[in-house]
């Protein structure tokens, strides 16, 4: 925390380098950007100090009178997940309306890659839009040298918005209980996902309130390829309803069950989350929870530009299709 009380670490500036090196700011700047104008000894000394302090020159901002680039970095965990299309669209529209542009970074569900993006992009962007960040909170705080807003993971000191996971879980369990299901299994997602933890907790709570059995299976990677293992685990649990972490797992489950001759929803019902493109025309069409992705994208930009949403909890609703039906 700096002297202003801001929990984010302050980015090292050329003034810090000059002060530490005991030279004028102009000398430090020339040593790093135009080394031919200073002695080799001065250049080497300033470069060593800059490296020790972790100084990264902002090449774009150096050329701008304001020192700002007009760029926000949108960091998402998986660029191939259709759920993020709406989020990117919403963030792009809001950024354009505010006179900004987006830089898109894919962390590939890997905390190390995510942190590397934060380090590399800090010198080029005015702020970060973090979608379901996977890194430990302490690591994120240590690497965030720019303002940031977060979707689907509350972090101390950072503004953010979340989907209403509890309401979604209540709708899912209520729908399945109404169809007669007495044993529900949750097909977990990444252990580093805040949304996964919330979904597990709230589904278990609502199942207990209705007096139905509840099992947690996995974790499974949030991709189509997890379908076969998730489906087999679900069938082996004895559950008559499977609730997947996201639509990609759920659609993978449907594909495997169809290939295996298992009737959906005749023998088992399947529920997803996110309502991605394709959920309505897979076979059978998938019952799922809508995600406020586009609204979240707009809200993230608003949190950095001064137009924050009134409510940080964004609504989700259950869309009932043909993958859920009465218990066998």
Detailed description of the structure:
With 328 residues, this protein is an alpha/beta fold. The chain folds into three domains: 14-57, lambda repressor-like DNA-binding domains (434 Repressor (Amino-terminal Domain), Orthogonal Bundle); 71-160, 3-Layer(aba) Sandwich (Rossmann fold), CATH 3.40.50.2300; 165-293 and 308-319, Rossmann fold (3-Layer(aba) Sandwich). Helix content is 41%, strand content 15%. The chain is built from twelve helices and twelve strands. It has helices spanning 14-21, 25-33, 40-53, 59-62, 83-97, 111-121, 137-143, 165-178, 194-210, 227-236, 247-259, 293-305, and strands at residues 71-76, 101-106, 127-131, 148-151, 160-163, 183-187, 213-217, 241-244, 269-271, 288-289, 313-314, 318-319. Strands 2-1-3-4-5-11 form a six-stranded parallel sheet, sandwiched between helices. The chain has a four-stranded parallel sheet with strand order 7-6-8-9, sandwiched between helices. The chain starts with 13 loop residues before the first helix and ends in a 9-residue tail after the last strand.
Proportion of strand residues: 5-15%
CATH architect. name of the largest domain: 3-Layer(aba) Sandwich
Tally of alpha and pi helices: 12
Number of strands: 12
CATH topology name of the largest domain, in short, is Rossmann fold
Helix content: 40-55%
Sheet with most strands: strand arrangement? 2-1-3-4-5-11
Q: Assign the CATH superfamily of the largest domain.
A: Response regulator
- Rg over CA atoms, rounded to whole Å, is 24 Å
Distance between the termini: 58 Å
- SS-derived structural category: alpha/beta
Which residues form runs of ≥5 with pLDDT under 50? 1-7
Which geometry do the CA atoms define? elongated
Question: Whole-number average pLDDT?
Answer: 91
Whole-number count of domains? 3
Assigned CATH class of the largest domain: Alpha Beta
Order of helices and strands: HHHHEHEHEHEEHEHEHEHEEHEE
Largest sheet: 6 strands, parallel
């Amino acid at each position: 925390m700096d002297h202003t009380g801001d929990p984010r670490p302050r980015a090292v500036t050329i003034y810090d380098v000059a002060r530490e090196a005991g030279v004028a700011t102009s000398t430090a700047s020339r040593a790093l950007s135009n080394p031919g104008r200073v002695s080799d000894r001065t250049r080497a000394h300033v470069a060593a100090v800059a490296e020790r302090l972790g100084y990264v020159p902002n090449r774009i901002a150096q050329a701008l009178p304001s020192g700002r680039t007009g760029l926000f970095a949108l960091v998402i965990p998986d660029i191939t997940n259709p759920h993020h299309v709406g989020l990117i669209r919403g963030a792009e529209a809001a950024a354009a309306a505010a006179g900004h542009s987006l830089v898109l970074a894919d962390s590939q569900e890997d905390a190390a890659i995510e942190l590397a993006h934060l380090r590399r992009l800090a010198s080029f962007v005015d702020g970060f839009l973090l979608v379901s960040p996977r890194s430990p909170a302490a690591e994120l705080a240590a690497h965030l040298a720019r303002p940031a807003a977060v979707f689907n993971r509350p972090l101390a000191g950072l503004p953010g918005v979340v989907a209403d996971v509890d309401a979604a879980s209540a709708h899912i369990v209520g729908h399945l209980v109404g169809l007669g299901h007495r044993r529900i299994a949750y097909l977990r997602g990444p252990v580093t996902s805040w949304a996964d933890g919330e979904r597990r907790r709230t589904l278990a709570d609502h199942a207990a309130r209705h007096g139905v059995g509840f099992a947690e299976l996995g974790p499974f990677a949030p991709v189509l390829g997890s379908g076969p293992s998730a489906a087999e685990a679900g069938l082996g649990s004895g559950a008559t309803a499977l609730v997947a972490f996201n639509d990609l797992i759920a659609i993978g489950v449907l594909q495997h069950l169809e290939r295996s001759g298992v009737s959906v929803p005749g023998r088992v019902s399947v529920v997803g989350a996110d309502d991605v493109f394709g959920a309505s025309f897979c076979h059978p069409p998938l019952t799922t929870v809508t995600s406020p992705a586009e609204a979240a994208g707009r809200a993230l930009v608003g949190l950095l530009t001064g137009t924050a949403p009134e409510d940080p909890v964004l609504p989700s609703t259950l869309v009932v299709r043909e993958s859920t039906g009465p218990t066998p």
